[in-house]
Amino acid sequence: MTMALSDFIDFSSCPVWDPAFTRQCAAGLESDGVLTLPGFLQDDAIDMLVAEAEARKQDAYFTASSHNVYLSEPRPDLDAEHIYNRQITSSKGCITTDQVPEQSGLKVIYSAPEFRQFIATIVGRPTLYEYADPLSSINVHYADEGQELGWHFDNSEFAITLLLQAPHSGGQFQYVRDLRDATAGEMNFTGVAAVLDGEATVEKLAVTPGTLLLFRGRNSMHRVTPTIGEKTRILVVLAYNTKPGIALSEAARMTFFGRLG
Ligand SMILES: O=C(O)CCC(=O)C(=O)O
Ligand SMILES: [Fe+2]
Prior knowledge:
Blueprint: H1 19-32, E1 34-37, H2 43-56, E2 61-67, E3 88-95, H3 105-111, H4 113-123, E4 138-143, E5 149-152, E6 159-165, E7 169-170, E8 173-176, H5 189-196, E9 203-205, E10 212-215, E11 221-224, E12 227-228, E13 233-238, H6 250-257
Antiparallel strand pairs: 1-10, 2-3, 3-4, 4-13, 5-11, 6-10, 6-13, 7-12, 8-9, 8-11
Bound molecules: 2-oxoglutaric acid and fe (ii) ion.
2-oxoglutaric acid binds at residues 141, 149, 154, 159, 161, 173, 217, 222, 224, 235, 237.
């Protein structure tokens, strides 16, 4: 049986085909730097997607890595203590697009023209494209007890996440809006240091399963706090490009997935 978008998305709270709703979402992203749509997924769709994700967890690539907040190589011309070179740890597991079942609701949602146009309009782009490599478009992230995602800026302009399962405690998404200006090459070392040293105010989001979150992570530094308790945090990242034919860099694929294809 082929499933449709209406089998997964709750159109009564999120009518993605409605121009007025889409405009309201775009205005929300503009004013808050992040758009949260609680109840985006139907309850039975969440159950189905959690079961699917749990079945594939054994194939996930788990890593603990150390990185700076810019997700770039250390600069030898700066001290090891410099904020640019400050190392942060992240640990989580993930499965890739090719490991998501073909009939999965995640692929239905990701590929649906209505959904893609909804997101494109919100982020102010005419069209969006999938990644050219077979790994990077849809990822399911697993964070077991103690695993976390450290402070970082994304390489991509924006990201879409769907929380499938929240841990008993922890696993909280935190961010500081517009902390740097990547286009202008402004890194804001002082502002970044204040956040890492716990001296800045950070926004904290309480996200429930089934929520869609859209945020501009290139300039807004963010993290996910460690999972507390034995229930795994399960989260989907839907990634699009603003140009066709773009693959995630080989270095990034090796870091995140442990393979190229
Ligand atoms: O797990 C999350 O909520 C955020 C994921 C994230 O920031 C990333 O994959 O870059
Ligand atoms: Fe991120």
